[in-house]
Amino acid sequence: GDVTSVVHYVDSKTHTLATRLPIPLQAGESIVIETVDRGPTEFRYSVATAPSTHSGVKLVTDYREQMGPGTDSTMPFFESKGPTQMVSMVEEITDGKIADRMYLEGDEMIRTDGMLYPLQLGTGTEDYFNGGWYFLGAHSNPMAGQPRFVVKDPSDGWSHARFEHSLYRNHIADPVVGRSGIRFGFETGEFGDYTPIRYRTLVFAYAFSDLKPLNFYKMPLSEVESSGESAEAAVVSAVDAEHGQQVMTFQVRSTRGRSLFRVACQANQSPAGIFLTRSYDAMMGDQEGTVSVNGRLAGMMFEAYANPHRRYAQDAIWLDLLPQDCTSGGVNIEVDSTGGHAAWTEVGYEATLFTGGASHLDSGRSP
After folding, report:
1. CB 3.0-4.6 Å disulfide test: which of 87, 153, 223, 225 passes with 260?
2. DSSP string, 205-252
3. Rg of the chain, C-alpha, whole Å
4. pLDDT tens digits, 339-348
5. CA-to-CA distance for 37 and 351, rounded, in angstroms?
6. Burial, 87: exposed, middle or buried (Cβ in 10 Å; 0-12, 13-18, 19+)?
């Protein structure tokens, strides 16, 4: 079908495909186009070259063809280990049950940087691809669409039909950023156990080799100084993600004050920044705190989301560092929640120091 987006253009009448997706090439690398059957096919093409803007950047593609696992879990569509920015996904869904499209209830779960909690927990496959009502027809928009929708045996109001979907989503305005890797998966159906169903997925991402982790630190509550009123309690809960996850017990501090801790670093390391992760209790929403580095305002953490049933959650922030921040052998981090609307909760913090080209990745959190 025809597609017109900010990245790709397809004209089915003239059999034309045009893409603006930048592909960084290293010395000696080449681009190869192959047909599915490897048979003789005529191609006419043109390529525009541009000067390199960043060193150490590669285009990464991940193609997978897999059947639904039939268990309460997510099915992985993309995984990376290093600094990565995911920008686009193409997906085909086929071979479902007769007259049943409950596979479109499958939620996407995007985890980054080794986090247990998904930074994006979706509400359905059709929502991820910016559709609705289970895709009643083909359509294409700049960022997402379904250029191909096939109903096999549409008689009797689709009561005997099977369906085929071809979908795309371009993460141009909202790139998925992971400085220590990305895990991107979908449930098949409401709980992940829908079967049979077949998925073919192709993900495009950029990998950055000059942003490297230096040190990792884990700060439990015993290493976090708290000023102001606070209280601690044990909570038994699962993580809000896969349906089949087991519960766990964790200690939580609730406070309306300032939380202070120190991250060790050496002056000769010259780290570019810190990726800071907070584990917390999602019982209450509207948790808000300003984050300072060595007394300098560095950003804000805010979570409107609340879940009183599965309470363990995580959020994160990137903190830029100045060359002089490590001269004293460590970085002092303060989270001030005195002006928040709700109590600030904390299970603990994790900090990863990075060196290199931090500016190559979006300095905010995504999604």
Report:
1. 225
2. EEEESSEEEEEEEEEEGGGSEEEEEEEEEEEEE-BSS-TTPPPEEEEE
3. 23
4. 888 999 999 9
5. 49
6. buried
